[in-house]
Design goal:
Layout lengths: L4 E5 L3 H11 L4 E6 L10 E4 L1 H8 L5 H5 L6 E6 L4 E6 H8 L4 E4 H10 L6 E3 L3 E5 L6 E4 L5 E2 L2 E4 L6 H6 L6 E14 L7 E6 L3 E7 L4 E9 L9 H9 L6 H9 L7 E8 L7 E2 L2 E3 L2 H4 L8 H15 L18 H30 L4 H13 L2 H6 L2 H4 L15
Parallel strand pairs: 1-2, 1-11, 2-7, 4-13, 11-18
Antiparallel strand pairs: 3-6, 4-5, 8-9, 9-10, 12-15, 12-16, 13-14, 14-15, 17-18
Helix pairs in contact: 1-5, 1-10, 2-10, 7-8, 10-11
């Protein structure tokens, strides 16, 4: 019997995870990616326990695939260096069964791509349209020829053309007021073993040790949308050069990089939830479905959850494996409706929560910032961890009646 065919628009973390999950369920998958080749540079990504648990259902060991760095502690600091809150990762591992890990994003996506058949990946092939979404869709690409699919997965990012095309009444993205700078540096001599984020007034600076020994650095500031300094390295020095150690030393490392190695992006999230995460035979996931700010570190994690749940709910790829035979009603549409029911409320709640945390992080009024800092310091670690339970313990596979994927 022929295999069902899924076309995935986008070879980011969500798209590749979805492709791998469906491949292991027996689907034929084609991943169409706009970029001409896999990324070799970029930022890091933190994989929280919920994402690691989702990957484990696929037999994907992220730490083995891309290496892992487990920081000794995680916490928030003031711009003068005083800790507002700090938690040992051993406590996180005891509570959630595993600690979070941090990996270079290119290494992780390369590991996911390597688990797919080589012919499944088509770089330099942007998806331009999906026609007849309620029947067997035709996928049009900029390079041709057209593809016919049983399912299209829109993992085409925060600016998702497929989202705009099929949800034209949705308000789309909204600017958070912040711009972010991101890069990776080598700094083994600094001995940094903690994942930390420092909050000032209207500005933030984050440090995350990565699995390859480098540090993932990010910073944000309240600026008008589209603001782009001529030299981002000098801009970071101007804004953060007087902050606590080791930030000045890290800025020294940034200044040794090419300016092009410092990524600069305005931060947007989705202005409101999509009415549903599917339309006909198209399913949206990750940033295309529920773009959120990075304040909870859950953007990539929720994309992984999306991908795993979607594949879990879909039927096996070989139509001969349909429980009632190949001539029964196609189960794909019902599976997509179940996907929306399983994922829409959780991802929207996390999107809203991430935006609220971001607003706290960039408070500019000195008195309001002082009250915020005092409240954080006064919160017991036990209560702070309790507030993360719904994130880190919230991943569940809904009942589908499907067998687990082959590993």
């Amino acid at each position: 019997m022929p295999k069902r065919h899924a076309v995935v628009a986008g070879a980011g973390i969500g798209g590749l995870t979805a492709a791998l999950a469906l491949h292991r369920r027996g689907w034929r998958v084609t991943v169409c990616e706009r970029a001409p080749e896999p990324p070799t540079t970029g930022a890091g990504i933190g994989l929280a326990p919920n994402a690691l648990r989702a990957l484990d259902t696929l037999g994907v060991d992220a730490a083995h695939a891309a290496g892992s760095a487990v920081p000794e502690t995680m916490g928030l600091r003031r711009f003068d260096g005083r800790w507002l809150t700090r938690t040992g990762t051993a406590d996180l591992a005891a509570r959630y069964g595993m600690p979070p890990i941090a990996v270079p994003r290119p290494a992780f996506t390369a590991a996911l791509a390597a688990a797919l058949p080589p012919q499944a990946l088509r770089y330099g092939t942007p998806v331009t349209a999906v026609e007849d979404a309620t029947g067997r869709p035709t996928v049009r690409t900029a390079t041709g020829p057209d593809l016919t699919a049983d399912l299209v997965i829109a993992a085409d990012g925060i600016n998702s053309p497929l989202r705009r095309a099929h949800f034209p009444a949705h308000p789309g993205l909204r600017y958070t007021g912040e711009s972010a700078w991101r890069t990776m540096v080598d700094a083994p001599d600094l001995g940094i073993a903690s994942m930390s984020e420092t909050w000032g007034r209207g500005r933030r600076f984050g440090v995350t040790p990565l699995s390859d020994g480098r540090l993932y650095l990010y910073a944000t500031a309240l600026v008008p949308a589209g603001t782009r300094p001529a030299d981002p390295r000098a801009e970071l020095r101007r804004r953060f050069g007087s902050w606590h150690d080791p930030i000045p030393a890290l800025l020294d490392r940034i200044e040794r990089l090419d300016a092009a190695d410092v990524l600069c992006n305005d931060l947007y999230d989705l202005a409101g939830p999509l009415p549903r995460l599917h339309h006909g035979r198209i399913a949206w996931l990750g940033d295309a479905a529920h773009a959120m700010t990075p304040n909870l570190g859950q953007g990539g994690c929720q994309a992984i959850e999306d991908a795993v749940v979607l594949a879990h709910l879909l039927p096996a790829g070989d139509t001969a494996d349909d429980p009632d035979g190949p001539d029964t009603t196609d189960p794909v549409p019902a599976a997509l409706a179940a996907y929306t029911a399983a994922r829409r409320a959780r991802t929207n709640a996390i999107r809203v929560r991430a935006r609220r945390i971001g607003r706290l992080g960039v408070i500019g009024n000195p008195l309001a910032a002082a009250v915020r800092d005092l409240a954080i310091r006064a919160t017991p670690t036990r209560l702070a961890l309790h507030g993360m339970d719904d994130l880190f313990n919230g991943f569940r596979l809904p009942d589908s009646g499907n067998p687990p994927p082959a590993r």
